[in-house]
Structure formats: structure tokens, C-alpha cells
Design goal:
Length: 345
């Protein structure tokens, strides 16, 4: 996924309204009440009608005068219109005039009552959302899957990563993780033992115009990197294909700096032996205690373990023999700092 920086297009300059129109727009007490309210919150016409206790046609006429005089702005949202006071820097009449008018509006006799009515409107906004979620709680996971994106979830987490982090993506395959790591500002080394897979990854990165990624063909059991060369390492669906998982974990521990982390994603222990022949799996997944023992033997400290059922492929199709895919695990481990006390397993 390629992340882009959005720059708002320049807005065409509009002529400032004549001063007499600017002043006339705030010569009415109702319009002063509206301006005072819209300085506090962005509100729609129905909400303003409720606060003021006036008819909608009257409120709409007052809003039009304020908008044409440059005091407020209008934002359309479908068939609804939302209004808010123009910021001081955008007000054509000048900041001092705006400040003086708003100070006068604060002295209106009904200001306290307007504030109380506004608070009730805002409480009702929250209450409406609360009623919806109370009724939707049982089916919310199903609803949100229709519009949420796992890629955006990953991008949100990646945004927390410090720029410049040196990350090793072992068994990169076709480079599925590389756009996300690049978007996070990481300095990435992508390693795979397959030249064909690396070529696909290069092509994908070229299409996305990703730069700064180093590609290397290598075996995870013998990485061509110096000790402590990386801040973190990621290995997705790699260990099950490796002849010696212990040797692979020892290499990851070697190339990650003290204090660095290693993230592993793979299948949990299962009995689907067909995967040995059809998918070249050397190991039928890993149990938690088994993997954590291997991590400790490599000098790594297990930090976290989470499992999830494997999602069926796009379109809801299951495995071709009709069965479910094995459960997935996510394991996180750290290479202890050199100064930290070491414990034997």
C-alpha cells in the first residue's frame, strides 16, 4: 500500500463584501446569537432551530446573511448543511472587528439559556451514537468488516514506528510487507532464498515507486549481515520451510541489535500432512512452548504470543479439499540488552 501526502488545492480568492454589509449582518440580535453559537460549535440548521426556538425559514435567512457577509462558512454534507464561524485569520473584516462583535454577543441577555440549549443538543448527538452501538454491539464485528481495511489498520500501527528504523524482512516473498515498511520510513533489507520471488518483489516495488529497499538473495540460516545490523526483523511464514528453525532463529538473534525485536508469523501446530508435499512445508507448524524454547535457546526473550483463525481466501472459499487452514500465531521476542542479566533456560 502506497501512502501519499495530500495537499489541499488553492482556493480562488473572493472579493470581500462591503463594510456596510458586514456590519448590517450583525445588527440583528438573532444573528448575533447565531454567530455566538457557531463560534462554539459547527451546527446544522435543525440544531440551530432547536437552540433558538425559531422557525427554520427564519433561521435559514439569518444564516444566509451572515454567510454572505463573511461571518460564517457553510459546509454541505449530502442534503444537510453545517455552519461555523469563520476563523479570525480568514475574516475579511479584520480580527479586531470580529473580536469586538463576539465580545458584544457574549453580553446578550439570553446567552446562558443558549449555552444550556446547545449543551442539550450536543448531549443528544452522543446519545444517538450510544443508542446505535448499544443495539449493534452483537453484530458490530460483522458490520465493520464491510468497510474497514486491514491495510489501513497496519498503516496506523506503522505510523507509530520511528522513521529510519533498520528492518530486516526475511522470506519477503513477493514483498507484501514492503510498501507498509517503506511508508513507515523504515530502511528495509528484503531477503529471500528464491530469485524468482525476489524478482516479483522488485517489480512490485518498482510499480509503487518505492525506493531505499535493499534486496538480497540469502538463506535465513546464514544471513549475509553483520552482527547487530538491524533494529528489528520480521519473518512471515518462513520457519515452516526451514530445515533448521533453531539455526534460523539464532541468525535473527545475531543480526538484530541488543534491545531489538523479532516478529514471527506462522501456523500453530497442526496435523495437515498434505502440506509437506503440496506446499513444501518441512514442519507442521509450531506449538507455543516449542517455539518459545527455541527462542530462548537462540538468546531471545519471548514477549508476546497471539493466535487467530486463518481467514478464508477472497470470496469466502475454503481450502481446496474443503477443510479449514491451520490457526495462525504471531510471536514477538527481543534480544536482551547486553547489560541485562541473562538467565539459562
Amino acid at each position: 500500500m502506497r501512502m501519499k501526502v495530500y495537499t489541499a488545492p488553492a482556493q480562488p480568492a473572493t472579493a470581500a463584501p462591503p463594510l456596510q454589509e458586514v456590519l448590517r449582518a450583525v445588527s440583528d440580535p438573532t444573528r448575533l446569537r447565531l454567530l455566538r453559537l457557531l463560534r462554539r460549535e459547527e451546527l446544522n440548521v435543525q440544531e440551530l432551530v432547536r437552540v433558538l426556538g425559531a422557525g427554520q425559514p427564519q433561521v435559514s435567512r439569518h444564516l444566509a446573511l451572515l454567510r454572505e457577509a463573511g461571518w460564517i462558512r457553510q459546509r454541505r454534507e449530502g442534503t444537510w448543511s453545517w455552519y461555523a464561524a469563520v476563523a479570525a485569520a480568514e475574516f475579511a473584516g479584520g480580527a479586531s472587528l470580529r473580536t469586538g462583535v463576539l465580545e458584544a454577543a457574549e453580553a446578550l441577555p439570553g446567552a446562558a439559556a443558549d449555552d444550556a440549549a446547545l449543551a442539550a443538543v450536543l448531549r443528544d448527538r452522543d446519545a444517538r451514537a450510544g443508542r446505535f452501538f448499544a443495539g449493534a454491539a452483537r453484530r458490530w464485528d460483522e458490520i465493520r468488516r464491510e468497510f474497514e481495511s486491514s491495510e489501513l489498520h497496519l498503516a496506523a500501527v506503522a505510523a507509530l514506528v520511528a522513521p529510519g528504523l533498520r528492518v530486516l524482512d526475511v522470506g519477503t516473498g513477493t514483498g507484501a510487507l514492503l510498501p507498509l515498511l517503506a511508508a513507515a520510513g523504515c530502511r528495509v533489507t528484503a531477503v529471500d532464498s528464491s530469485a524468482a520471488m525476489l524478482e516479483r518483489a522488485r517489480e512490485a516495488c518498482a510499480r509503487e515507486r518505492l525506493t531505499g529497499i535493499v534486496f538480497q538473495r540469502a538463506d535465513v540460516q546464514a544471513l549475509p549481515l553483520r552482527d547487530g545490523a538491524c533494529d528489528a526483523a520480521f519473518a512471515s511464514m518462513v520457519l515452516r520451510h526451514v530445515a533448521r528453525p533453531a539455526a534460523a532463529l539464532a541468525e535473527l538473534a545475531r543480526v538484530v541489535r541488543p534491545g531489538g525485536r523479532i516478529v514471527l508469523l506462522d501456523f500453530t501446530r497442526h496435523e495437515q500432512a498434505w502440506m509437506r508435499e503440496e506446499l513444501a512445508h518441512q514442519w507442521l507448524g509450531f506449538a507455543r512452548d516449542e517455539l518459545e524454547r527455541l527462542l530462548r535457546q537462540a538468546g531471545l526473550a519471548p514477549l508476546a504470543w497471539a493466535t487467530r483463525a486463518a481467514a478464508p481466501p477472497a470470496g469466502g472459499r475454503r481450502r481446496r479439499d474443503g477443510g479449514a487452514w491451520p490457526e495462525l500465531f504471531l510471536a514477538v521476542a527481543a534480544r536482551p540488552d547486553a547489560a541485562a542479566p541473562q538467565t539459562d533456560d
